[in-house]
Amino acid sequence: MKEPGDSDKQPELSPEEQAKADRAVKILYGVMALFIILPFVFLILRK
Predict the structure, then answer these.
(1) Phi, psi values for residue 6, rounded to 5°
(2) pLDDT tens-digit profile of 13-39?
(3) Has residue 6 been placed in a domain?
């Protein structure tokens, strides 16, 4: 149960913190993409 005072919104971030968060998300997505692509790369290189 949510308390009446709780809000669903994220707290406002300063532009500096927002940029830091954006960079972290980009790195995370990059790593995930790498792990998805790597097996195919190895399959192609093995032949």
Answers:
(1) -70, 140
(2) 798 999 999 999 999 999 999 999 999
(3) no
Question: DSSP string covering 1-47, please?
Answer: ---TT--SSPPP--HHHHHHHHHHHHHHHHHHHHHHHHHHHHHHHH-
Q: How far is CA 47 from the centre of its chain?
A: 33
Q: What is the CA radius of gyration of the chain?
A: 19
Within a domain: 18: yes
Q: Quick check: 13 and 21 in contact, CB under 8 A?
A: yes
Q: Which domain holds residue 22?
A: 14-47
Record the pTM: 0.55
